[in-house]
Specification:
By secondary structure, this protein is α/β, with parallel strands linked by helices. It is about 40% helix and about 15% strand. The strands form 4 sheets. Strands 6-5-4-7-10-15-16 form a 7-stranded mixed β-sheet.
C-alpha cells in the first residue's frame, strides 16, 4: 500500500488519521491541501512529510501559471514558506523544499514549463531516493539484529512514515526477510497512537509477530528480560548525535541504558542536520492540548484541565549505541562519524 502517489498532476495521500479503521485516500490538487494534510498528520513521519511537501511545492507552482522565470521563482519561494511552516521538528521537510528551490535556482532555463518539469522530476527523485535509502538502512541495520531478537520500537517509522519500507521498521523488515525470526513490541505512542494504530497494522500485513504494549510498560518489559534491543526512527539528528524523535523516545533510551540494551536510531541522511551543533537547537513542536485531553475525540480528562503536548523529545547522543544510515552504521563519537558520512 502506497503512502502517497503522484497521479496526473494530483498528489494522492493515504489518510493516516483514519487508520487502521479505514483506508481512505485524499486527492490534493493544491498546496494548501497538502499543508493541511501535513499539519493534521494525515501524512506524517519525517521522510514522508519531506516527499509530500516536495509534491506540494509542485502543485503550488502548477496552479500559479507563471509567465516567466522570475514569477515562477517568486511563487515557488512563497509556497515553500507556507509548507515549511506546517511542522518544525523534522528537518526532512525543509531539506526537501530547499532541494527543490536550489534545483530551480541552479537551472539557467527561462521557460516556465521547463522549470516546472524540473521540479516534478526533483520531487520524484526525492520520493524514489527515499525508498532506496530505506532499503539500504534495512540491509545495514539487520546485521546488528541477532537471530530471534525481541525488538522494542516506538511511534511509526515504517513504510507509512517514509516513501516506502521504513527506517526503524526497515531494519526489522530486513531482519525478518533474512530469516532471523524476530518479534516486535510496539509502544502505543500516546497521545496520537502511531504505534498502536500504524506500526501494528504494518507489521501484521507483513506477518511479522508484533505485540502491542502501552508506553508505561517499557520498564517492566525490559526488567523482565523480554527485550533484546530498541530501534527507533528520527525527525532530526544534530551534528553531535543528539536525536529528536517522537515524545517518549528519550525515556526508552534511558531505560535501555539501565538494562544494558542496545539503543539504535535508524534514519536517512536527509534527517541529519549538521548545521545544528546539538539537540538543544532543535525546535520541538508543541501541539494542541486536546490531543492529550481527548482520545479519538472523547474527553479523558476534566473539562478545562491544562495539558502539555510536546510532540517530540531529544535523546542525548551518549544514550545512542549506533545510528543506522543509508551510508552505513555510525558510532560515537558522532561529531566525527556523522560528518564522515558526507562526501563518501
Ligand atoms: O508526529 P509524527 O507521527 O510525524 O512523528 C513521527 C516520528 O517521530 C517518527 O519516528 C520519525 O518521523 C521517523 S519516521 C521514519
Amino acid at each position: 500500500m502506497d503512502t502517497m502517489r503522484w497521479e496526473n498532476g494530483t498528489l494522492v495521500l493515504l489518510d493516516q488519521t483514519k487508520l487502521p479503521g479505514m483506508v481512505e485516500y485524499i486527492h490534493c490538487r493544491d498546496h494548501e491541501t497538502v499543508a493541511e494534510a501535513i499539519r493534521s498528520l494525515r501524512v506524517r513521519g519525517a521522510p514522508a512529510i519531506g516527499a509530500a511537501a516536495a509534491y506540494g511545492l509542485v502543485l503550488g507552482v502548477l496552479a500559479a501559471g507563471a509567465k516567466n522565470r522570475e514569477e515562477l521563482l517568486a511563487r515557488a519561494r512563497e509556497v515553500a514558506n507556507v509548507l515549511a511552516s506546517t511542522r518544525p521538528t523534522a528537518v526532512n521537510l525543509a531539506w526537501a523544499l530547499n532541494r527543490l528551490l536550489a534545483r530551480l535556482e541552479a537551472s539557467p532555463a527561462s521557460d516556465p514549463q521547463e522549470l516546472t518539469e524540473l521540479l516534478i522530476n526533483e520531487a520524484h527523485a526525492i520520493y524514489r531516493e527515499d525508498r532506496e535509502a530505506n532499503k539500504r538502512i534495512g540491509q545495514f541495520g539487520q546485521e546488528l539484529v541477532p537471530y530471534g531478537a525481541r525488538i522494542l520500537t516506538h511511534c511509526n517509522a515504517g513504510a507509512l512514515a517514509t516513501a516506502g519500507y521504513g527506517t526503524a521498521l526497515g531494519v526489522i523488515r530486513a531482519a525478518h526477510e533474512a530469516g532471523k525470526r524476530v518479534s516486535v513490541y510496539a509502544g502505543e505512542t500516546r497521545p496520537l497512537l502511531q504505534g498502536a494504530r500504524l506500526t501494528t497494522w504494518e507489521l501484521i500485513q507483513d506477518n511479522i509477530p508484533v505485540t502491542l504494549v502501552t508506553d508505561n510498560m517499557a520498564a517492566y518489559l525490559m526488567g523482565r528480560g523480554m527485550v533484546d534491543l530498541v530501534v527507533v526512527g528520527a525527525d532530526r539528528i544534530a551534528a553531535n548525535g543528539d536525536v529528536a524523535n517522537k515524545i517518549g523516545t528519550y525515556g526508552l533510551a534511558v531505560l535501555a541504558k539501565e538494562h544494558g540494551l542496545p539503543f539504535y536510531v535508524a534514519a536517512p541522511l536527509s534527517t541529519i542536520d549538521l548545521s545544528l551543533a546539538s539537540g538543544k537547537d532543535i525546535p520541538i513542536e508543541e501541539r494542541k492540548s486536546e490531543e492529550v485531553t481527548h482520545l479519538a475525540g472523547v474527553p479523558v480528562a476534566p473539562p478545562g484541565v491544562k495539558a502539555w503536548n510536546p510532540a517530540f523529545d531529544v535523546t542525548p547522543a551518549r544514550l545512542v549505541t549506533a545510528i543506522i544510515t543509508d551510508r552505513g552504521v555510525v558510532r560515537p563519537p558522532y561529531r566525527e562519524s556523522l560528518a564522515g558520512l558526507y562526501g563518501s
